[in-house]
Design goal:
- The chain has nine helices and seven strands, in the order ααβαβαββαβααβαβα.
- By secondary structure, the chain is of the alpha/beta class.
- Strands 3-2-1-4-5-7-6 form a seven-stranded mixed β-sheet, with helices on both faces.
- Helix 1 runs antiparallel to helix 2.
- The longest helix has 17 residues.
- The radius of gyration is 18 Å and the shape is globular.
């Protein structure tokens, strides 16, 4: 599908709305779309791809289908086995401390994980650490002020997390999967972009709305509006070489 386009956005949105009843269709479409986005910047064939927090393995499967050597690192064994079998090449591991050598991956991939970690900058640093100079880091997340920021209890999170969770319990008769400050955290686009741009070990290739059908980069440049309208922020970063990082550091010092 053409990206961006209204057709693509509607297809992904419909799949997302059916995620609970047909998760395979939802995540298969999402994995195909993510692989397309990556291949605009680097072919997947013969690349080593590290999928961090990839759940049941849909993304890893798509990367392998395109010729990559892909390995899944997931901290929750229940998520790994959600499809009945644990994907081959999977490791139960925390994204804060990946059991990988420095600079081993051509691509480090993390889809919709950053809002679930208490320290997103440390998590991001670990993704960068295991990526080789010149390699790519793909990170997407749903920001807190997005209409879907509260996940299953959205959009009532705008009225407060406790109120939204209580409403979810009343409506469904079961506790919500996510709890603010436990496995869901209020992450925002503006601070995240400033922190990424301040880093000397990566260069920012793209910062865009992952699902929006038009002006995908423009919407992320408007303070305030971007916190609501972006819905889901996609960052693609390139790991810088030591020489490039040193030159950038010197330039910043000169300007300062």
């Amino acid at each position: 599908m053409k990206d961006p386009s209204i057709r693509r956005s509607l297809t992904l949105f419909r799949a997302f709305m059916g995620e609970r009843t047909d998760p395979d269709r939802c995540y298969t479409l999402l994995a195909h779309d993510a692989a397309d986005q990556l291949e605009r910047h680097m072919p997947l064939n013969d690349r080593l791809v590290v999928d961090v927090g990839g759940g049941g393995g849909h993304f890893t499967e798509e990367f392998r289908r395109r010729g990559a050597q892909s390995y899944l690192f997931e901290p929750d064994p229940r998520e790994l086995g959600a499809r009945g079998t644990i994907p081959l090449g999977s490791v139960v591991a925390d994204g804060y401390l990946l059991p990988l050598a420095d600079g081993i991956a051509d691509i480090c991939f993390s889809s919709n994980v950053l809002e679930h970690v208490a320290d997103p900058q440390t998590f991001l640093s670990e993704l960068i650490r295991v990526t080789r100079p010149g390699g790519l880091i793909y990170v997407s997340f749903t920001n807190w002020l997005s209409p879907w920021g509260g996940h299953e209890w959205a959009p009532w999170h705008y009225l407060g997390a406790d109120r939204a969770r209580a409403r979810y319990l009343r409506r469904t008769g079961r506790p919500a999967k996510h709890a603010l400050g436990d496995n869901l955290f209020a992450i925002h686009i503006g601070p995240t972009l400033r922190q990424v741009r301040a880093r000397e070990d990566v260069s920012l290739i793209t910062a865009r709305s992952r699902y929006w059908p038009f002006l995908v980069q423009a919407v992320t440049r408007v303070p305030g509006l971007r916190e609501i309208a972006t819905w889901n922020l996609l960052l693609i970063l390139r790991r810088r070489t030591e020489t490039a990082a040193a030159m950038d550091s010197q330039l910043r010092a000169t300007r300062g």
